[in-house]
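Lab notebook: predicted structure, single chain.

Context: the supervisor wants predicted structures on file for every construct in the current expression panel, including those that have not yet been purified. This is the next one on the list. No modifications to the sequence; it matches the entry in the shared construct table.
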Amino acid sequence: MECIGEDVPYATLTSFPRTVQAKESEIVVFSWIVYESRVSRDAVMEKVMTTERMKAMRGTQTFDGKRMIFR
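Prediction complete. Output recorded below exactly as produced.
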């Protein structure tokens, strides 16, 4: 699931844009994946990371990973 926060206000106390210190020209993306199991997740990630598309993207990061929140 992927959510694009193009109309999320920069709230006074807390919000996704405030959490990552988004600039006015930036859009916050919130996404998640649900896997059947950890084994399934590991198998999927191994396949994804070895595709030609992912290999071509290495070194061309289009986001600031220091502001990424993950669990």
